[in-house]
Amino acid sequence: MGGGLFGGARAAPLPPGTRVLAQDAYHQVFTAEGLHDVPGDGRYHRITASTSAAPATFEHRAVPRTGHDVFRYCTVDLARGRALPDGPLAVHVGGDFKVTSRLSGAGGGRPLELNLGVDPAVRVVDRKVTVQQQDKGLMSQTTRVDHHIAVRVRSALPEPVDVVLYDRLPVPEDEEKDLQVALIESVPPAERTDRDPLGEPLPGGLRWTLTVSPGGTDVLAWHYRLEFPAKAEVVGGNRRD
What we know:
The protein has one helix at residues 3-11, and strands at 56-62, 69-76, 87-93, 96-103, 112-133, 142-155, 161-168, 180-187, 191-192, 205-212, 217-229.
C-alpha cells in the first residue's frame, strides 16, 4: 500500500468506541490467523485477527443498600501472556448479544471481568432494618444499639442461583476510641472484604453468598451492634443506615 493510503487512514475518524493509545502504552503485536483482503481505500475495516477459547465463570452480584438490581458478571481466565487490546467490546452469550462494554488492555494472565448488566430474572425484593436501643439509665454506663438487617432476594430462574451480596459495617474515625462496632450474627455467614463489586475500596465491607431456590425467595439476615458510653451520642444519630 502506498503512503497516501496510510495517510488517509490517519486522517479518517477513529472507529466508534476506540481512542488513541496513551504514550506510555505497552506495545503488542496481534498476528492474524491466515490472510485477509483489506480494501486499500484509506478507511478502517474490521477483520478477525484471532479466535480463542478460555474457561469462564458467571456470578450474580448486588448491593441492596443502593438498589434492587442484581447484575450478572462473567470472569474469563485468560492464558498467561495473552494480551487483549484496549477498545470496545461486544458481549454475546449463546449467540445472543447481551451488552456493550470496554476492554482496558487486559492481559498477562490477569482474569478478565465483564459486567453483563442487570439480570431481570433475579431481583432484591427489599432490605429492611430494625433498630433496637438499650435505654440509658443510672445503672448503665454503656449505650447499646442493635441493627437487624433482612434482605429478600427473588429468582425466576428454573435452577438455584448464587447471589453475592455486598454491604458494610460503620467504620469509626480513628479518634473515636469509645465507639465499638461488632458483627453479632449472620445467616448465611459473612465474609470480610475491602472491595465492592467494581473493585473500589469498601471500608468495613461485608460479602455474602446467598443461594436462592428456583422460582423462590430467600433471605439474608444479619445483626450488628454499636456500643459507646451512655453519655455520648453518635454524630448524625444512633441509627446507622
